[in-house]
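Design request, tokens follow.
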């Protein structure tokens, strides 16, 4: 199971808290290295963070967290 698929499974379990998280958005973030997950025994994802780190000088390296669930 890929990182984005693992994150989507967790997001679906927390739909009331997160709303609907789009799989293409998670996939794009995975490709941009803006999706992290915590795995239990390198097999099962138990949490994820979907974020964007802005490199724009005007925003001074601001990081925005879109969704976070454990």
């Amino acid at each position: 199971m890929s990182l984005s698929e693992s994150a989507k499974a967790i997001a679906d379990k927390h739909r009331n808290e997160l709303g609907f998280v789009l799989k293409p958005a998670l996939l794009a973030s995975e490709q941009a290295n803006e999706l992290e997950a915590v795995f239990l025994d390198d097999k099962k994802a138990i949490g994820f963070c979907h974020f964007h780190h802005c490199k724009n000088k005007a925003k001074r390296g601001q990081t925005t967290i879109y969704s976070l669930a454990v």
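Comment from the thread starter after seeing the answer: thanks! The radius of gyration is 13 Å.
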